[in-house]
Write the C-alpha cells for this entry.
Amino acid sequence: MQGCVTTIAGRSLVTQSAGRKERAATVGIGARLAAAREARRLSQDVVADLLGVSRVMVSHWERGQRRPSEHTLERLAAVYGVPLPVLVDVDVPLPGSSTVPGADLVALLFRDAQSGIDAAAEAGLQDFVRFLDAYADLLERLDLLDYALTQSPFSIRRGFSGRDDVRRKAEEVRDWLRLGLGPVGDLAGILDDAGITVYRTALGADLQRGVSGAFLNHPRLGMSIAVNVETTPGRQVFTIAHELAHALYHSQRDSQVVSYWGRQDEKERFADAWAGEFLVPEEGLRRASESLGIKSVTRADEAVHLQRLFGVSYGMMLVRLLQAKLLDEDTYEEIKGARPVALASALGYVVHPEEWRQDPARWRLERFPRRFIRALTAALRDERISPASAAAFTGLTVDEMAELMTPPTGDGDEAAEQEQREFAGVRQRAAAA
Amino acid sequence: MSASAPPPPDRPVVLDTVVVNYFLASGHIALLADLCGRPLLLPRSVFDPDEDDSGREEAMSELRRGLHLHRRRCEDDITPAELRDRSMRALPEFERLPELVASGMLRVVDLEPDELKVYADLRSAPFVKRFGLVAGLGPGEAAMLAICARRGWLPATDDTDAIRAATQLLPGVQPYRIRALLRLAIDRGLVDLARAQSIHQAMRDLGFWDKGTL
C-alpha cells in the first residue's frame, strides 16, 4: 500500500505517508479480532452469521488481508461484548466477560431460548434488545417516554381449561382493544397505540432452527414484541398475536419468552390457540362468510377471500374454518395444497412482493413501531436529529430519512388510492359472491 | 471571490455520506473532486470497496446501502412513482462506485486505533449529548470527524448533527457544506451561477433537504 497524495487545485498534499504503518495496524487489529472471537468461543461461521457477511470475509479480517470498516468493528465489538476502544487497543487486555450495555437483557433472552436457536436468531434477539434500549434513550431525550404498558391488565391466574376459556380470553382482549368481531387490520399499529412495542427483525430464515418471535418486558418500554421478518406476512401477524398472548397472560411470571420451532410447552400451546381465536373469532368468521355468501367453504378461492379479509395465512384460515365447522375434512384435504398467493393474484388482490419471497431488506421503516416513526419524523423536522444520525439509528439510508422530512408529493395520495382500490375490490367481490 | 464563498481547502478534505450521496446521485462527482481534490477521501463506513455485495444490508457501508435501495426501488412494483424516478436517475451513478475507486477518483481512509476511540465516542449517544445531540452520529460522520480531529484535515458534510459536533470538536474549522461547495465552484469559475443553481435543484429533486438558495 502506498502513501496517499491528494491533489487540490493543482497542488499535491501528502495525506498519508505511512503505508507500512497502515498495513501493520490492519494486521494488528486482525490478530486482536481473532483473539476476541476465540475468547468468546465463537467460530468464524457463527460470527459471519451474526454480522451478515461471508465466513471468508471474517477470515480475511483476522489475517489482516482486509480491513473492516469502523462500523463493522463496532458491530464486532458488540458481538464479542467488548467496547470498541478496548477491542482495537493492543495494550489493554480483553475482558473476560461482557461489558456492553444491554448484555444482561440479551442473556435473559438467550437463557429462555436455551440451545434451541441458531446464530442468526441470536443476532436478531441482540438487535431487538439494542433497538429497545436505543429507542427508550431517544424517547427520554425527546421527552416522549410518556406511556408504556408495563403490566398486563389481565391475569392468567383465573386459569384456562380448554377452547372455551381460550376464546373468552381472546374476546376480553378484543373488547379491551375495541376490535369488535371483524378483521384486526394493522395489529402492530393497534398495539403500539396501546403501549406495546412491536419491532420486526431478522431472526433466521431456517424455521427449524430460527425464532418466529419473542416477548420481553423491557425495563423502560414495557411490553415489547419481536417478529421475524424472514417469515411470510400472514405468519408475522400470527406471531404478533402469539407473543401478545405471552405478554398479556404470562408476563406476571416471565419477563421474557422466546418462541421457536419445536418449543411445545403449555405456554406455547395456549399462545397458539389464543392467537387463532383472537385473529379470527368464530362469530366474526361466520358473519364474514355469510356476507360473502359462503355457507360452507367448498373451494380454495372462497378460503382465500376470507384469508385476505382477515389478513392471516391461508393455513391458519383453513384451521379456523375447520374449527368453526365451515369446512369439512374432505374439502380441507382437497384444498390445503392450493397456491394461495397465486390464487389471490388471479382473484385481483394486490399481492405484496413479500408474499412471494421473504427478503428482510425489503422491510424498511415498516419494521419499526408507528410511535417510533412519528417521534423520529418530528425530531427530523424540528432538526433535533439529523438525517445521517437517524439513518444510523434505523440502519436505513440518508435518502429515506430525507423523505421523512419532506415526503414526496404523490406518496400519500398513492397509498390512499391503493387502500381505496383494495377496499372497493373486496366489496365488489363480496357483492359478486 | 464572492462574499459568501468559503476559502478553497488548504488541507485534505474528508467527505461524509451526505455530500458524496448528492454529488454522486446528481451526476457531479467530478465537480466535487475538482473542489475537494483528487482522490476524494472518504472513510470506509461511507463506502467500502472490499465488502461483500451479497451480504446483509445492515453489514454494508452507507453508499452501498444506498445502491441497494436504488436497485430495489427500480425493480419493485410497489415503489411510488416519484421515488422510483429518483432511483432511476441515481442508480447509474451509484453503480459506478467500484469503478470510481478503481480509477483513483475515490480513496478510502482507514482510522488509526486512536481515531477509533474518537469514533466510538462520537457514535455514543451519552457522549454527544454534550453537543446538544439526541443520538450518536452516523458511522460515516463519526469516522470523518475522528479523522479530522486527529489529523487536522477538513470535514465536508451537510448533516446538521455532524456540523454541531464539528463546531465544538474542531474549533475554528468551518465544515464544507454542499451549498458552500457550489459557491466555491462558482468562485473558481468551474460553473456559472445558473449551472450551480440547476445542480442544487437537481440535488433537491433527489431528496436533498436544503431549502436555501445560492
Q: What stands out?
A: Residues 300-354 of chain A form one domain. Residues 119-141 of chain A form the longest helix (23 residues). Chain A has four domains: 2-88, 102-279, 300-354, 364-432. Chain A is about 55% helix and 10% strand.
